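1st attempt posting a full record on here, be nice pls
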Amino acid sequence: MCRSCATTATPAGLPVDAEGPVHGLSRRGLLAGLGLGVLAVNLSAGASTATATATASATASAKNGAWANPALGRFPAGGHYGAPRGGASHAGQDVSNSTGTAVHAAAAGTVVRRSWGGGLPGRTGNALVIAHGSNQYTYYGHLSAYRVALNAKVTAGQRIADMGATGNVTGPHLHFETHTGSLGTTVNPVGFLAARGVDLAGGWSRIDPGASGATVVVMQHLMTQRGHALVADGQYGSVSAEAVKRFQRSKGLAADGQVGPATWPVLVYTLRQGGGGSHVRALQTALNKRGARLAVDGGFGSVTTSAVRAYQSANRLVADGEAGPVTWRALTG
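the predicted structure (as tokens):
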């Protein structure tokens, strides 16, 4: 987990794209020079108010398919938001996995920082910051490799980096932060993403009626395969919602229209090479959200098999080319 990565005030005049550490200073020396013990606690009354406001404004309607899980792994002990870091508080949530594990954009936006520490004091090694609009930002730290450039436009679920152990750490992991109101004002990433239908711990996602985007297209293709013919237009409108409720009732589920941990497992199929149909189109669409660039033709051929294996390998799943519940859960997360 992170040895530092504390919440701090945002300093003025830091380089936006410095490509390496500050030479001639140790990590601890740099933190000391920044006066971490004084600056670090951004969980002040003002920050607490911002956190409370952000939490209060998060409603079920935020489960709109716009957000995605940034990485798969486990939550290490002591890597939670607010954990003590000397005289400061841990600014994000750590997700541990091996070096090279894929890191994905949590939502669409623009890469505004690509540097050692991401231009914020008391942070990680190699880092990216993505601006999502409406004064929302996400931070990805301890990266072993960048896969996007500074100022790049990214989409939700796109691979942007590789997990690593750069900076002051005890092992490879992603240090993930969410900022609202301004860059430097952090909120708990687990709760922030949960309010938007994403389980940072790796569970099934949740999407509500009114959602739009690729995850809705995935759901619509699966519903068509289940006998509820839907236009795969990416809009979770009233027709799709009523179809989902009928499907839920047929499976003995609460007919609330939310496609979540109860509905996804009975909606997906275990697929392998040689299959064909709308469920394969759903799989191809989900893989494309993660950057596969497949033709959505409904045929599970060798190219789709290779894409499944590549995704599984990059995310440290069993790379057997078979799309079963574990792979679906990761793809739709």
